[in-house]
Amino acid sequence: MTPPANPPGLSALGDVPCLSGTALLTNPLLNKGTAFTERERDALGLRGLLPPRVFTLEEQVERSLNAVRRKPDPLEKYIYLVNLQNRNETLFYRLVMDHIEEFVPIIYTPTVGQACLEYGAIFRRPRGLFISLRERGRIAEILRHWSTPNVRLIVVTDGERILGLGDLGATGMGIPVGKLSLYTACAGVHPGYCLPVTIDVGTDNPALHTGTAYIGLREKRLRGPEYDAFIEEFIAAVKTVFPRALLQWEDFGNTNAFRLLRRYQSQLPSFNDDIQGTAATALAGLLAALRLTRGKLQDQRVLFLGAGEAGTGIADLFVAAARSEGLSESEARRRCWFVDSKGLVMKNRGDRLAEHKEPYAHDHPFIPTLTEAVKALKPTALIGVSGTPATFTREVIEMMASFNERPVIFALSNPTSKAECTAEAAYTWSEGRAIFASGSPFPPVEFKGRRHVPGQGNNIYIFPGVGLGALACEAREVTDAMFLAAARTLASMVEEQDLAIGRVYPALTRIRDVSARIAAAVARMAHDEGLATLPRPADIEADIRSRMFDPVYREYV
Ligand code: NAD
């Protein structure tokens, strides 16, 4: 079997750096800082530019760990880590990977949310490409400004709906940067393949128009056909300049996210993590929860609070899973119910329902509130994706616990301050019976002598593995069947000891293993669906594992 060209685990940059001196020290992909050996210091013009002692990577990790732990708060830690990443990516990834549970909440949610809010103020050095309306007609040229020619993975946002925080315009850049860091740390996609992009079409956040530190265009957000034409130009440029790239849509507003996904899904390998990644993550949590309740997927009644990208994405994948277990499409859809900001989503509600909600508008009398909907529908699972905190009230949770032995309660809204309820509330008000998961991490809870460990339904379990799998086989498209395969694989990796403490996701320390298994399932599905463009290796999983990037220093001379 011919090995694929430029597999995801290999550097796009070749084995020997062509840089020397200060240029080498300021290239984060090649820089080793104080770990350059005596020979390298002589051969690469580094003498005098570094202090004399040579450190090992392990010693550097230790030193950085001490430094970051001395920082007084998460945002300061974030700033330290971003600076480290800009200086020395090998060291950054070694540090993050060796202490994944400690640093994921810093480089991603919840701290990244705060970092985006303060991005203008903490901005030191650009990372990623900013493509603004000023560059209309020149996007291909701008893409060619990127430092590495071999981009294989793009995460792009237009900043309209950053986490649960709303329109943050160009300061949304923290999200593509953070997501791509997770691709490398969690799934071993080489950082040299990754390109974060922020499309700046203005912002409708008035505070940013007047804020002195705001880094983006201070004008109203472009909408309508002109917006579509700008995105069309961007996609055409991506296909020309980086023809092998996989693209992830990230944190686009509701009105654009579904349309863009549908329009471009079959034009280039692409997916929307907020819709499809969230769906697979939540479905995996639900499948694992069913191992505790001993229920069947097709017997569940799921009530969602929030009918946006996350909620309807989860329901769509739930429907696909239930259909594969024998339900008809309409039977499967009737298992999913939605309450949005106007009340129960139902037929003839009187407002014009967005297209993505229509399949879940059932024939039912109107119900104005979540509490009444829970009372009337008696769901087996309650999934919060509304971005509105404290909506899973004591009454709601007590009611869920009154008709379910083990009520499934997922409060997925991010960041922590937006969660529909806290872990403590879910366990306490359900007398310790809730199977709880959240979007942002909550610490374990002691209730009546038992320790409950909340699962974090973090998309980090899914998107890095899906992306790696699609890259490894160079899939032409990323399909729902691949996400379903990813969800099933993730659920199967939750161990009995996780379930025993109520955790419906594997420990984050296993993330590389999880990503490798998911990548293999995705690549297998791509081959089965005829969408892989590379030959099928004899052992797909072994092939993928052998190609994952591992942050270690290579000898340059
Ligand atoms: P969205 O803006 O597309 O949708 C939000 C929905 O919530 C809308 O339908 C809105 O009408 C509804 N809503 C708002 N306030 C409400 C209220 N008080 N009562 C009922 N409904 C209300 O956003 P989204 O992409 O669907 O994300 C929603 C939340 O889910 C965010 O906080 C996001 O951080 C979180 N999320 C979590 C994960 C995860 O944990 N893995 C993944 C993606 C999104």
Short key terms for the protein model shown above:
binds nicotinamide-adenine-dinucleotide, disordered N terminus, 24 helices, seven-stranded mixed beta sheet, Rossmann fold, 3 domains, single chain, five-stranded parallel beta sheet, alpha/beta
Question: Would you mind describing this structure in some detail?
Answer:
The protein has 557 residues and is an alpha/beta fold. It has three domains: 108-268, Malic enzyme, N-terminal domain (Rossmann fold, 3-Layer(aba) Sandwich), CATH 3.40.50; 279-460, Rossmann fold (3-Layer(aba) Sandwich); 462-499 and 506-546, no CATH class. Helix content is 43%, strand content 10%. The chain is built from 24 helices and 14 strands. The strands form three sheets. A seven-stranded mixed beta sheet has the order 8-7-6-9-10-11-14, with helices on both faces. A five-stranded parallel beta sheet has the order 1-3-2-4-5, with helices on both faces. Strand 2 (153-157), helix 10 and strand 3 (194-200) form a beta-alpha-beta unit. Helix 4 packs across helix 5 and helix 5 packs across helix 10 (174-187). The longest helix is centred in the middle third of the chain and has 21 residues, at 273-293. The radius of gyration is 24 Å and the shape is globular. The two termini are 32 Å apart. The relative contact order is 0.11. The model is unreliable at 1-16 (pLDDT under 50). The protein binds nicotinamide-adenine-dinucleotide.
Quick rundown:
With 557 residues, the chain is of the alpha/beta class. It is 43% helix and 10% strand. Helix 13 links the parallel strand 4 and strand 5.
